[in-house]
Write a structure and sequence with these properties.
The chain is an alpha/beta fold. It has a single domain (2-459), classed as Amidase signature (AS) domain (Amidase signature (AS) enzymes, Alpha-Beta Complex). It is 35% helix and 12% strand. It has helices at 14-22, 28-36, 50-63, 107-114, 157-164, 181-187, 221-231, 249-252, 277-292, 308-321, 335-345, 349-370, 397-407, 412-417, 446-459; strands at 45-48, 77-80, 119-123, 170-175, 190-193, 213-218, 261-264, 296-299, 375-379, 421-428, 434-441. The chain has an eight-stranded mixed beta sheet, sandwiched between helices. Strands 1-3-2 form a three-stranded mixed beta sheet. Strand 7 (261-264), helix 9 and strand 8 form a beta-alpha-beta unit. The two termini are 19 Å apart.
Length: 470
Amino acid sequence: MGRYGRRVLHDLTALEQGDAVRNGDVSPLELVEHYAGRADRVGAFVTTTHELARDHARRLTVTGRPADAGPLWGVPTAIKDLHPTAGVRTTFGSAAYDDFVPQVSDELVVSIEAAGMPSLGKTNTPEFGSPCYTEPDVAPPAVTPWDTTRTAGGSSGGAAAAVAAGLLPVAPGSDGGGSIRIPASCCGLVGLKPSRGRVSGAPMYGDPVGLATAGTLARTVRDAAALLDVLAGRRVGDPFWAPPPSASFLAACDRDPGRLRVGRFAVPVITDTTVAPSSVLAWDDASRLLESLGHDVEGVAVPIPPEAVADFETCWAVLTALSPAPPGREDRLRPLTRWLAERGHAVSGPEFGLAIGRLRQHAAAALASLAPYDVVLTPTLAAPPVEVGALRDDADPARDFANQKAFTPWTSAWNVTGMPAVSLPLHMTGDGLPVGVMLAARPAEEELLLSVAAQVEAAAPWLDRRPPGW
């Protein structure tokens, strides 16, 4: 490890750790042991699988590095507790599934294992990944390491908390309405939601609407891109897919994006809410930074109309209803889940179909209006991370849902359109809380999005900004 100076292992980026493995400076097992020995003070994990990770790391050492190994071979990670993992307790964030052990893994888990990345466990998530905060009944709340009284966001809150606190070098998440970008903003990370169809949902295909996708949480744009290279790819039977990139997503980070036309808006999309000055300041500062990099930045109208919100909520409620509790365990579901599921069950088949159709019409109109712009800039959240419990309201689930919309008035727009979007940790409040800004690109243009995100990071680096207790 001499070539890395006095830095400890978790100071290194995921790619630096992969480079250290490749050069023989550290072994996969040493990385696993390092991370397994770090204390979880941020509610990052529901279940740990340290011994399984050790076994995987030992197998990697025995078999040796394959000729086609990617740059993250030997680097540990963990799996969000929404992804079925064979032989490992998978709760979906719900007390109704607190003892569920799947027999098969989904394709994300298979991809992670095939890439030679030992998994240290299942990262914390709220029930069925629905809320934008991570406060399940099967684990402590996930909190941001910048202030452990405040939420890590959701639903990939455990994954974000783990990466931000130095418990993992990089982690996958999933995003149906902002669930990667929200915790990225709360935890001071890069959070990348890819295009619809970029990452396969096989074999479950649990989202018939097309809102949700897996993506990546990382400390740098390059780490996020490298993990996307692991996750991306079409599987036989996928209902929709994105065209393959021209090269690796990691390689896109080294390209000059050229002079871009950037549209920007900060008017909330899904609800009328007060936006914190720090969110507006972060957005304004990012606009000026992009201009200083030679890009043309101009204001654009909000691309999705207010009437799209009701259709989104109809689809969200039906998707919740598609995740029932095992028979006899319905009383273990959270009030918010029961409330949303009841709304979903009240929707008829034709009503659901019409809502999906209208959402796609809204998406088409938005994509047409934004087509002249290479990327679109908005705030990520309406406020810095709030205190644990500030959004949750078990006594009034409708109020809980309204609180979530007020906190996240932009992120779901890009789930509706299927555009790739990334939250970048460009700003800190005066009292030391992270504030993200969000860039979105045309569908299937992750390479362009990553190239400009890497350019922004190079101009305003954040890697050396570390939370208390690092």
